[in-house]
Design goal:
The chain is mainly α. The protein has 28 helices and two strands. It is globular and about 85 Å long.
Amino acid sequence: TRRGITVDTAALSQRLRIPVVEMVGSRGIGLDELKAAIGQELVAPGSPVTYPPAVEAAIEAVAAHIPEENPRWRAIKLLEGDTGVTAAQPAIDAAGDYAAQVMVEAGDEADVIIADSRYQTIATLLDGVLTRPDVAPQTFSDKVDRILTHRLWGVPIFMLMMWVVFQITANVSAPFLDFVDGVFSGPITHWAQGLLNVVGLGESWLAALLIDGLIAGVGGVLVFVPVLMSLYIALGLLEDSGYMARAAFVMDRVMRTMGLQGKSFLPMMVGFGCSVPAVYATRTLANEDDRRLTGFLVPFMSCGARLPVYVLFGAAFFGTMSGSLVFGMYVLGIGVALITGLAMKHTVFKNKPPQPFVMELPPYRLPDMRTVLRQTWDRTKGFIEGAGTTIVIASMAVWLLTAIPVRGGAQFNDVPTEDSLFASVSRVAAPVFSPAGFGDWEAAGSLVSGLVAKEVVISTMSQIYLGADEGGETVLPTVVEDLQTIAVGFGEATVLTVQELVNIVPRTVNIIPGVTLAEANFLGAAGDEDATTGLQSALMASFTPLTAVAFCAFVLLYVPCMSTLAALRHEFGTRWMLIQTGYSLLIAWAAAVVVYQGGLLLGLG
């Protein structure tokens, strides 16, 4: 309506021979009418699309080889080259033969003719039904796009948007991160220890496995669920508002420096959440070379599983500036992808022609919070379910390795961590990381375990830095005291979350040289931003700010999780997956060394 377009629904319904209902799904407008239409008894009108004789003959011939249901639909999909359709090999072979025959008889590809036939049918159906104004009116979206998609300002505005997203991710989520950490290291550990004491297992190896292994490992990862939820909410708001499509449009010129198109940026944006669906999202790209190159670059987009590592080190070493570290890591990932893509454009894909970029930009709209929150919950639940089994197994494996002595004459489950099998194995890999500034066995062991999944880096650190220190309480708080601690902590976290949300404005404005806006401090001393978790305190004793940044750079760029490697192998083959694995290891080590050695040269050590 805002664009002056009208549709005669009655005439369209008559032509299609089915009810046509006008709806606004996000607002529920037309929902009752749709339910009533669905409840009507309808006679299937059949497909209104008419294909040329050569294509019709090919469809019938291929359908004859398909015993499954909907043979005509499957035959059309096979002629279009849709690899997502399941069919017997004879049908697939027949589709290839008849598609070639259509090319000879009709002078064009079968999928192009099929698509053209559909558009011709749509044009016929809409003739006299859809009315457009002679001059399209300037809508609110058109006016906003003059700024947000500007050839000069578009990219800086996009970077500013990402800056705000990562301020929300790192700082707004921090109070609930501390709250959840306190619940796991406090009440949950207390209750588990109390139950074990009741059944007489308080000093047993089983108690160590559950408290130092399972609770420390799993809890060390689950405390970062607020961080992931903050990221998913922020990205969900941008998606539902219509801005994400503009991001692809704005980044088109940047992507073309690598021989890609703006649409390739969308799988990379998906990679900010998880690399696995991002790899499969490359299927939306029609050109095979675009798919392979985009899939190769996707793992350099920092996924949600890496985010807790940045937030952990950022909060420990940079306080309220931790958002800058997070933002820097995401920018570094994009930068490495751009450099890699540019190099591959002039080597592996040297003769690859540029692909056109056509994309419909949806109108801007207010985000529907129900949709955003539902997507946030689905993504967070998927992370917990997907990572849960891996984290449990890895946590128990790390505990077992730390409980087995290899020197010092200690006994099983009574061994200093530095004398354990885990430390012995980690020391073998540690020298490799010495040029990057974190050549101790604890850091090396965390990175090796992170090959399984990046979530395991945090759980491993929780075990090797804190596992032996958290079981020494002899007098446990009562259940009532623990519940009071939880209630007070939740209240403070809620207030501080609002405070950090308010402080996004002054912290963003304060980027401008010479500008200093005061920040909110609702709880005074209770909101002390220098407070750290136990793991953060342990890391501050083992790392420096420079080695922390180098460590985060390595985590960002080194081998993605096993699930991502499996997706790469499934989509592009074993050889391409192995090349990506080797390259990511090399580039991660080089980046960490450059950060550390460069920092030393600049006097930042």
